[in-house]
Amino acid sequence: MLDTAHPPLVPHGGNLGYAVRRYGIAREHWIDLSTGINPRGYPVPAIDPQAWLRLPDDDDGLEDIAAQHYGASRALAVAGTQAAIRMLPAILPAGPIGVGLLTYGEYAPAFAQAGFRVERFVTEVLADSGAQADFVLEPRRALPTHLKHLVIVNPNNPGTELFEPEVLLGWHRQLAARGGTLIVDEAFVEAVPGFSVASQVDVEGLIVLRSIGKFFGMAGARAGFVLASASVDRAMRHARGPWTVAGPARAAVRAALLDGGWQRETRTYLAEASARLASRLTQHGLSVRHTPFFAWVCDADAERRQDALARHGVWVRRFDVVPGLRFGLPADELAWDKLDAALRAACDKENAR
Q1: pTM over cut 0.70
Q2: Percentage of the chain surpassing pLDDT 70?
Q3: Are 323 and 130 in contact (CB under 8 A)?
Q4: 219, 253, 279, 307: most buried, per Cβ within 10 A?
Q5: What angle, 0 to 180 degrees and rounded to 10, lies between the N-to-C axes of helices 16-23 and 302-310?
C-alpha cells in the first residue's frame, strides 16, 4: 500500500546535483544521460522583453496552435503534464485505476493520495521478469472487469513498450462502457506521431497528455497540453485557473509548435541517434530496447553498473521495481566518446570473465 499521509518523493532523472555530491566529480566533468529529453532542443528565438512584464495572456492563440499541431479539437495549456496529473483525480469518478509497475512514477501516488485504488500492471514483455504486479496487460485480452480507469504511457517510459492506436482505442471502448477513462500519456510520441490517439479525444472517456519538454528539449519551460472532450476540458480549465504557463514560455512554445521544418529534421536526428545508442550498448554486451529518446537495459546488476558508470562521469537513471537502467542520448561526439569509455570500464571487464 502507498503511504498517502506522507508519500515519499518520486525519484526522477535530471538529479545531477546528487551525483556531483556523491562522487565528488565537478559538474562540468559529467555527461548527464539520466533523462529522456532531446539533447538538441529547439533553438528558442529572442523573447519580447514585454513578456516578462505582462501577465501571461491565456487568450494568445497558443491553445489553438497546439490543437492544430496535435490534430485535436481543443487543447488546454498546463504547467507541464505533471500539473495535469495532479488535477486528474479530482475530475474522474472513483474506481480502481490501472497504472504500470514500470512507468512514469507520478501517476500512482497522485491517484492513491486522492483515494483511488491503484492496481499495478506489467506488460507482456515483463510478464516473466518476476515483478510483483496485480495483472498483466495484454492487447489481445480484455481488461480486468472491475477496472474503471487505465493509464498508458505510450511509448512507455522507461520500458519502451509502444501500443498501436487500435489497441488503445479498444481499451478505451471497454472502459467507456463502464463509465471509465483511458488516460494516454504521449510525452514521447512526438517522434513517432503515427501512434498518437490525439485526434480521437472528442469521445468521452479518453484523455491525452502531451509534453513540450521531451521532443522539443524545453523541459525548463514547464509547458504541456491536455487534449480531451469538451466536458473534461471545461472541468480541467476550471481546476487549472489562470496564468499557469508563463508568458515567455508561451512565446517559446508557440515558436516551436509552428516550426515544422525543425520538427521533421529532429525526428530524423532522434531516430539515427537512438539507433546509434542501442548499437553502442549492444556492443558492450547489454540487452537493449529503445525509443527515439532513450534506451532501456533490463539489468539485475543495475545498481553496481550505475555506480561503475558514475565513477567515470556518466550519470544514468536506475530503476529498482524492475531492475534496469535508462540511457538518454549523448549530446555531442565528446559525450559519445565518454560514454564509450565508461561502458568499457563498467561492462567489458565483466563480460571477459
Answers
A1: yes
A2: 95
A3: no
A4: 253
A5: 80
